[in-house]
Design a protein that fits this description.
heterodimer, A: about 230 residues, alpha/beta, Rossmann fold, six-stranded mixed beta sheet, 10 strands, B: about 375 residues, alpha+beta, 2 domains, ten-stranded mixed beta sheet, two-stranded antiparallel ribbon, about 55% helix, elongated
């Protein structure tokens, strides 16, 4: 893919994040620069403590940066407060987590509808495009089951469906295959790649697994709060 | 969808939900039971006073409206009052509290009392024959598990239950007037005197005449007396009810607060998920408050049902001493107390929930 031709959907400049734990300060990000063009599938790889999750959380509006500038979908995330970050999560960013994070008391269908409801979108009926996504995910006949009645692979596919239901600008996937066996991992990675190809869905994926990272257009390595590769997309 | 989220959450943890509703129901039941007892005891007292068949009651100064105890009148006043114009019958009654003051035994002149009230209807046994005889109404006989011919200990003395009568006249227990007078050292004294007139039309005139002759004595028509026997006319009872409602609010607040605090803790991760989906602070707080409202409503309904249960228990075990009424006019009040306490109790846990860091919440196990 020629991502350099596309507009950047994420632009991170001089990003720093310092956590205060009691009297101890931990610098999780030490000046990160990153540009992600729209429609890219970017894999971020790094060991535990490298800062990749922190970067992910800041881009997703789950936590504010300590310094630097973060532009996501044209919005300066570093300049907004809690309400602004909430709006970012509601309208522009969706998450897929390692632990699926489905609401356990709701069916798969209601998990999806909850995301739509929070985003202020109609909860029913689903539009044909989303119905086709459900077909692609292979969960159309499992929607009336609660998470506890679904396999790990099915739960993760429901989580992906929930994330995509609101048509986010960016899909952030945090170790999406971390809790899955190899067969389900491959299925989920193929789905993410298909979604990126078909919908031009921008995807940022964090992973420890080099094989999983290979599904992205670009692999970025992080260590000690810094990006080791060039921030420019290829 | 919001209601569905609340409902599914309530449904998903049935034991916690049931316990919360039960805990909220307790103060509701407490309030309704005590209000019911206040009304029930007063209603019972009023019903029994009405059953005497009198038109006017002449009381001793400083006597209590409910029990008529506390003051005494000279018994020779009965004859004087009987000679007043339009007075057909006069009878004196002496009241003595028993059982720690909840109940009282009435000393009566059987012949005069029968003339005024139309007489007792005996379910078992007969009227007084010996000085050791006592008459009980059905409620008290049931409460004490005693039948005619049996023995009952009252005022530290064993009495022979001569008869059991239908309830609704003056008292639950009756002794002959001279017997009770001797026993409590009130020889020649009565607590109040009841007057029966030739016509109810003459009540105002007789009242006016008696009040002129006996300045400072509480003298009422029975109709006035009935209106006086109400919760609002007894300041101590009013205060008692206010205290009970206050306790209900405090218990409800503490219980719901604890329950919702536990609920928020249990749902930390779910709140994190909702936040990751873009749920605002208002949305999360709204869910918590809706849930508290639903639990408060459930607690109110269960509390109302429980109050029927306490009424049944009272009617089985202490029908004479603690008659409980069902007072529907207090249901909305008890409901407001429960739901107000529930919402107040949910505010702090709700604030904790909305302030939760979404990353920490998502990592919560």
């Amino acid at each position: 893919m020629n991502s350099a031709a596309a507009d950047p959907i994420i632009r991170v400049t001089g990003l720093r994040k310092i956590y205060q734990t009691g009297k101890v300060q931990v610098e999780a990000l030490r000046g990160v620069d990153l540009i992600v063009p729209a429609g890219e599938f970017l894999a971020i790889v790094g060991p535990s403590g490298s800062g990749k999750s922190t970067l992910f959380h800041i881009i997703g509006g789950l936590t504010p940066p300590s310094a630097g500038k973060v532009i996501v979908a044209g919005r300066d995330v570093s300049a907004v407060g809690d309400a602004g970050r909430t709006e970012l999560r509601r309208k522009y960013v969706s998450f897929v987590f390692q632990k699926f994070n489905l609401l356990p008391n709701l069916t798969a269908l209601d998990n999806i509808r909850t995301a739509l409801f929070i985003s202020g979108l109609p909860t029913k009926p689903f539009d044909p495009a989303f119905e086709s996504i459900l077909d692609l995910l292979g969960i159309a006949n499992r929607l009336n089951h609660k998470p506890g009645e679904l396999s790990g692979g099915e739960q993760q596919r429901v989580a992906i469906a929930r994330a995509l239901a609101t048509r986010p600008t960016i899909l952030l996937a945090d170790e999406p295959t971390g809790n899955l066996d190899s067969r389900n991992s491959l299925a989920v990675l193929n789905i993410l790649r298909d979604l990126n190809a078909r919908l031009k869905q921008t995807i940022l994926m964090i992973t420890h697994n080099a094989d999983a990272a290979a599904f992205g257009h670009r692999i970025m390595h992080m260590s000690d709060g810094r990006i080791l590769e060039t921030p420019q997309s290829d | 969808m919001r209601l569905k989220l609340v409902w599914e959450n309530i449904r998903f943890r049935p034991i916690r939900t049931a316990l919360s509703i039960l805990l909220i129901a307790i103060p509701v039941t407490l309030i309704l039971m005590l209000i019911g007892l206040s009304h029930g005891m007063l209603d019972d007292s009023a019903r029994r006073a009405q059953g005497i068949g009198a038109d006017i009651v002449f009381r001793a100064p400083s006597s209590s409206v409910i029990s008529f105890s506390g003051g005494t009148l000279p018994a020779n006043l009965i004859a004087f009052l009987a000679q007043q114009p339009h007075v057909v019958h006069a009878t004196g009654v002496l009241n003595q509290p028993v059982e720690g003051g909840i109940d009282s035994v009435a000393g009566i002149d059987p012949a005069a009392f029968d003339r005024m009230s139309g007489g007792f209807t005996f379910v078992e046994g007969h009227t007084f024959q010996k000085p050791t005889d006592i008459l009980l109404d059905q409620y008290y006989a049931t409460q004490r598990h005693v039948r005619a011919g049996g023995t009952i200990n009252i005022l530290h003395r064993d009495w022979n239950v001569a008869g059991i009568v239908e309830p609704g006249k003056l008292s639950h227990m009756f002794l002959e007037l001279p017997v009770l007078q001797d026993m409590i050292g009130a020889t020649g004294k009565v607590s109040q005197i009841y007057l029966k007139l030739d016509s109810p039309d003459n009540i105002p005139a007789v009242l006016e005449s008696l009040k002129a002759k006996f300045n400072g004595y509480p003298i009422y028509s029975m109709k006035e007396l009935m209106s006086l026997i109400s919760v609002n006319n007894i300041p101590v009872l009013r205060t008692f009810i206010d205290v009970i409602v206050g306790i209900g609010v405090v218990i409800g607040f503490a219980v719901v607060s604890l329950s919702m605090y536990m609920a928020v803790l249990q749902r930390t991760r779910e709140i994190g998920i909702l936040k990751s989906l873009g749920a605002s602070k208002g949305f999360v707080m709204g869910l918590i408050l809706c849930e508290a409202f639903a639990l408060g409503l459930g607690g109110t309904i269960v509390g109302i049902l429980f109050s029927f249960g306490t009424k049944w228990i009272m009617s089985v075990f202490v029908p004479a001493s603690l008659p409980q009424a069902i007072v529907p006019s207090w249901w909305p009040v008890a409901g407001l107390v429960a739901m107000g306490a529930a919402l107040l109790g949910a505010l702090y846990p709700g604030m904790l929930a909305v302030r939760q860091d979404p990353i920490e919440a998502l990592a919560y196990e």
